[in-house]
């Protein structure tokens, strides 16, 4: 009888232990995000020696954002001001570096290809579609040794998935003051070559008189060579921006009509077209090092009429 009870006790204990082990949750290990912008090499973000922030695709899915400037506004040290009064025509302020629309102090890359204007360094944020961007990396602080003397405030790298899996995304939005936004993104395989295509359009009448603005952009790439240790792709972009400027108002004029435009700025208009063609290549040197480079041609055509305010009561166009 004693032997029977002992055997029954051991069997019950082993059954209970097995039940506990079966119910134990599987341990989850989340790996550190890998960033490339800060050190120009794949580095875990926790080990990066630079002030680097990253927004992943899952982050952007849950954030209340509609464009690139909205997304960057969730990163520390970044603020955007809008010159048109309706949330567009953004100007970046990065850790106090603020160009006021005359300079950017910020290098913007799309898969490593510079998107800044070659002459002024300005970025047309309205033509950078959020669709197709898989993650955003930002290096805050001066990065002239890595990216040139224009990167006083930092560097933004917009990274696409790089996948040839077919995908399409379409977005349309409208609002007051004649606001209209649309974007189309497509990626897939074209004749055995991976491609991406991103189209963006924005238009609004502006809050004030003589403040209309339109912006159109197209960015695309196609793979030319995809080997085991090397790759080569062609990247193209075309931007077109048309805008009017209502000019500043005195406090007395604002009290009379806050939506009025300055009489000195009645002829102010900007019509700019920018194009960019790049050959982007990568070659694996060894298991831990890859060399990347690009050859880029950029052009800009502008028709601009501007007024210089010399005093509150006098200006020169």
Give a written overview of the molecule.
- This protein has 317 residues and is mainly β.
- The protein has one domain: TonB-dependent receptor, plug domain (Ferric Hydroxamate Uptake Protein, Chain A, domain 1, Beta Complex), CATH 2.170.130.
- It contains five helices and 19 strands.
- The strands form five sheets. It has a seven-stranded antiparallel sheet with strand order 11-12-13-14-15-16-17, with no helix packed on it. It has a five-stranded mixed sheet with strand order 3-9-10-7-8. Strands 4-5-6 form a three-stranded antiparallel sheet.
- The relative contact order is 0.10.
- Mean pLDDT is 80; it is low at 1-24.
Helix content: 10-25%
Radius of gyration: 26 Å
- Straight-line N-to-C gap: 110 Å
Kindly report the average pLDDT value: 80
Strand content: over 45%
The helix-and-strand class reads mainly beta
Summarize the structure.
The protein is mostly beta strands.
List keywords for this structure.
317 residues; 7-stranded antiparallel beta sheet; 5-stranded mixed beta sheet; mainly beta; Ferric Hydroxamate Uptake Protein, Chain A, domain 1; 19 strands; 45% strand
């Amino acid at each position: 009888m004693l032997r029977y009870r002992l055997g029954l006790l051991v069997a019950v204990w082993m059954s209970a232990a097995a039940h506990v082990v079966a119910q134990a949750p599987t341990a989850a290990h989340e790996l550190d995000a890998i960033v490339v912008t800060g050190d120009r090499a794949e580095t875990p973000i926790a080990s990066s020696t630079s002030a680097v922030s990253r927004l992943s695709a899952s982050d952007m899915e849950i954030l209340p954002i509609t464009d690139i400037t909205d997304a960057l506004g969730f990163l520390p040290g970044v603020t955007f001001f809008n010159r048109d009064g309706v949330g567009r025509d953004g100007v970046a302020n990065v850790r106090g570096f603020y160009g006021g629309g005359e300079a950017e102090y910020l290098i913007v890359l799309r898969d490593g290809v510079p998107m800044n204007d070659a002459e002024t360094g300005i970025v047309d944020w309205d033509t950078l579609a959020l669709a197709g961007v898989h993650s955003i990396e930002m290096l805050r602080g001066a990065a002239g040794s890595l990216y040139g003397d224009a990167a006083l405030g930092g560097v933004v790298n917009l990274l696409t998935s790089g996948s040839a899996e077919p995908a399409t995304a379409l977005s349309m939005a409208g609002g007051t003051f004649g606001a209209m936004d649309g974007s189309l993104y497509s990626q897939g395989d074209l004749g055995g070559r991976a491609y991406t295509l991103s189209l963006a359009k924005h238009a609004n009448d502006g809050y004030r008189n003589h403040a209309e603005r339109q912006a159109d952009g197209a960015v695309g790439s196609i793979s030319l060579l995809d080997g085991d240790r090397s790759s080569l792709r062609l990247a193209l972009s075309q931007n077109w921006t048309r805008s009017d400027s209502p000019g500043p108002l005195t406090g007395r004029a604002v009290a009379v009509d806050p939506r009025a435009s300055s009489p000195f700025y009645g002829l102010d208009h900007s019509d700019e077209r920018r194009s960019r063609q790049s050959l982007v290549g990568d070659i694996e040197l060894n298991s831990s090092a890859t060399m990347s480079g690009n050859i880029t041609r950029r052009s800009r055509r502008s028709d601009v009429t501007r007024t210089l305010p010399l005093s509150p009561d006098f200006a020169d166009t």
